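Pasting as-is:
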Amino acid sequence: MSSVISLTTAPDLSRLNMTLFGLAAPPLIEEDQLTTARIAAIRANGTIIGTLLSADLRTAGILVTPESASSSSTFTFAERRAWLSHVRTIVAGHARHGYQTYVAGTPFERNDVDIYLKRDQQTAIPLVMIILLSVTYGLYRQLRLALIPMGCVALSLAWTMGLVGFIGLPLNVITSLLPPVLMVVSVSAAIHLLNAFLAARTAGMAHREAIDHAVRDIGTACGLTALTTMLGFFSLLVSPVPAVREFTLLAGLGVGMAFVITFTGVPIALLAAGAHISYWAEAQGPIERFLERSLRWVLSHRHRMLIYWVTLAIILLALPGLFRLTEGTDIIRTLKANAPLRVSTEFIDRHLTGVNALELIVGLPEAELQPAFIRRVLAFSQHLRALPQVTSVHSPWEGLQWIRPELLADDRQLRVIATLLPLSLPLDQWLNVNAHALRMSIRTRAMGSDRFLALARDVKGQAEAIGLPVQLTGTNYLLARMSRTLVFTQLRSLGLAIVLILGTMTLALRSWRLGALAAIPNLLPPLMI
């Protein structure tokens, strides 16, 4: 009948479902076997292929959003780890009957890096202790003397890491470097003090006199070394990255505590050991003989000019490299090839749209959606899809890309379709008219922070070119920015560290010439590397 626009019967009503966005469509697939026409329709659906289904229809993807990412609540560290572990358990439980399952994403990257750091610390710290004990025992050939520096190392480490635990700071990629730094600083000061004591005993001084002489002889030098090291760490307190500020503060305090422990603990240990410690004989060991021969070779007139020219050549070779330094962090590629996270990430990159995302917040010009704005968003989305690094784009109106253009030509019709278009995710996650904000999500494959930030610049520039106010955000973007900020902040703080350290040495030595001379062994190694 010509007057009938549509017909709805009772059986039809049972198939309809009222949602916040209007009437939801019936299930897309009802049969067990897909027809050729349905398979073609699925392949033509750009919002599904790549994100939820691979192009060969053999891999399905599920995007999981934790509750804390869509609400004001936040996960604690323990809750986040428990949630990720539960997700992995569920995913692994479905890997049966010939199916394979993979799980990846930024939350898993952060979680696995934390786990790897703790595991490495549990292995590396005892290993370093064994190596240091072997070296000190080889130097002194007495277990009592070898244990004294190791006691300073253990106490310095316990004090500093105990402070970290007491104030409740969780270890991260940066603060996990504290133990090796403290171990090196504390063991070197203890060895200097022991060597000064043994040299005094070899010179004929009594036991107590030798301890007093050693503390007075190298106490100032070691104190100045500790002070300049602390100032070097404290120069990084200007960093905007909280993890860097935490590391530098704790490392500086740890160096100070290591100095106090060494110059109080070592004399007490030497007094307690008393006559049980034998001192060096006049005969030199292999290390002393090698160092003495090296010193004679360096001080030889004919070798001095050779050293100068070789050093100058190395500096000249290193200078061009300064202008070729690049910055980039790629956590996935640093993992072993068989690491579960890397395997999962690379599989998803190959078959789907990747695990990384660049989130965009687009400002709405008015509270009411305007057709011109919707068209700009659609044009912006088409440009993003053309970028080689972009694998998929999501927004409230991506479904409009596959609607016939003539249906969208009319402004009133476009506004109605854009308002009632069913979405795969809740509307409040993508569009907030009251806050004048629209969310867009760009999916990418795993890449280094330098390439990710280059993509972000391209996206920002295109948005500005078509008049869209865009704010870049998302976990991947923030982590990439933090990585770059960390590198450039450290480079800028290097100048402050040089001023503080060399200024302190010049004042302590009371000579700018000696201060400049002391700068040579401090500045040349970083420059060459």
